[in-house]
Amino acid sequence: MPIGSVFNNGVEGFNRASQGIEKASAEINRATIEQQDDAQLAQQRQLQAARPEEAVTAPVAQPARIDEALVNLKVEEFNAKANVNTIKTADEVLGTLIDTRV
After folding, report:
1. Counting beta carbons within 10 angstroms of the beta carbon of residue 12, is it exposed (0 to 12), middle (13 to 18) or buried (19 or more)?
2. For a surface tag, which of 2, 40, 71, 93 has the fewest beta carbons within 10 Å of its beta carbon?
3. What pTM was estimated for this model as a whole?
4. Which among 69, 67, 65 is positioned nearest to 77, based on CA atoms?
């Protein structure tokens, strides 16, 4: 496999990992905002309730989405590191080949 191909694959993989990191970060942000909105809405309903039995408890949060997004974020971090190592290795091999031929 040519060195240029390995280098390009590393760069493409790093770009995909960067996009995955952005997507996971956006999902974490969105889920956090939704949970805050749900908690605020439940608090408003409790304050507006005339009797204690009418008070509404806070809705059950959906931590699975945040957990899943955090796992995806960590996976993409590992992907990015692996692709950076691929790029470094391709660079070192190319440097060695150039040094050998000169």
Report:
1. exposed
2. 2
3. 0.67
4. 69
pLDDT attached to residue 19:
96
For residue 36, which of 79, 12, 66 has the smallest C-alpha distance? 66
| Polymer length in residues for the chain | 102
For the chain, percent of residues with pLDDT exceeding 70: 80
**At residue 57, does pLDDT exceed 80?**
no
Q: Report d(CA 102, CA 98) in Å as an integer.
A: 6
Q: For residue 32, what are the contacts with CB-CB under 8 A and spacing of at least 6?
A: 66
Residue span of the structural domain in which 30 resides:
3-101
Domain total of the chain: 1
Rounded Cα distance between 97 and 8, Å, is: 18
Q: Report the amino acid identity of residue 24.
A: A
